[in-house]
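Predict both folds.
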Amino acid sequence: ELADYFVAKGMPFRKAHALVGNIVLFAEEKGARLDQLSIEDYRIFFPEVEPSLFTYLSARNAVERKRTQGGTGSQAVEFALHSTLKHR
């Protein structure tokens, strides 16, 4: 999801993937999870990062962005549940 955030900001995926690897190493060195890093920590790696990063990375928003058939988005899950109940 973090790489997707950077891609949404215009960064090529390959570069975003490498950047996330560096951020993960940084977090590990601090003994922190990614959600425990501050906006200032993220700005070390990507100065244009906005506080909306934390909203973007929320579990609910991450799930809702998955809008593929059979995915985890609420519409896909609701459709699957409705289809399953209909065939009982």
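Second protein follows, with its predicted structure tokens after the sequence.
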Amino acid sequence: MTACVESSPARLAAPSRRLAWPWLLMLAALPASVLAALCVGRYPLPLSHVSSVLAGLALPDGLTDWLPAVSSAEHRVVLQVRLPRVLLSVLAGSSLALCGAALQGAFRNPLVGPQILGISSGAAFGGCAAILLFSSLWATLGLAFAGGLLAVAIVYLLGRTQGRTTILMLVLAGVVTSAFFSALISLATYFADPNDSLPAIVFWLMGSFATASYVKLAAAALPIALGMGLLYALRFRINVLSLGDEQASAMGIAVEPLRWVLLGCATLVVSASVAVSGTVGWVGLVVPHIARMLVGPDHRVLLPASALLGGTYMVWVDTVARSATSAEIPLGVITALIGAPLFAWLLRRTQGRGAHHA
């Protein structure tokens, strides 16, 4: 597919002047979804009790007397079980969606995402190696990042021809690298102990926040916040890249170094997300398209919109995963079941518009 995510200079010269209702909707949806997720589960809780627990964290003791009484069990469910899981799902979903939006703009291709470029597969292989060898959170974080960097390095070597890289070669190199690391993951599962590490690897690869904790949340928050902050700081340069390499060079942008800086930031974010949640696909591919429909192509507004939608989306996916059945459904299964038909509809919609305007 040769369709590109591109915009005219006039549309990117000033901030998007879209209606305010998409922002009001997105800003209200995320906290409302978090509250709903804290209430929903196999041990349902009333909203008043959840609000009472959360208010107790922020208000002094003298100001909480009017709140409903909460049992110790309800207190533990909210603060120790659900809250770290919900916050981790917000962090992972927002980071994956923001990375997807940034990569699609930088490569001017709606099919580009962390999985297409091999970042997710490389990070997943690093996580598998950590589970096999160390079974430590910090080892998983470190090796997931190392695997993601290794995947980016391989993409760079394969995609560089005649002293320069092209978007097409990078995407093709990403597909090859992703397949290579997928084979390594299969090899790792083959050698894993079927009674010990194999179930952990398989469940982790399918994606889950079941082992969420405040330690994992803190460990992932720093690299994810750093990577997302750098990507947002480069939002104007991503806008320029989305106009095309020639125009970006004419405006004084060093195209190839900037693209690799963006890839490095995306690797940092995706690797940290994969380390704490496993491989969760389709979020970075589909959510930016929805955000682009709501707020337009300007990355100064598209990146935060994608983060808001991604966090909200992942909260609901995780809520369904842990509540729909007695056994938890892997996140990757749900995101694929939702993302594949939704992306097919988006492709049909885009092609229909192109044919109409031809």
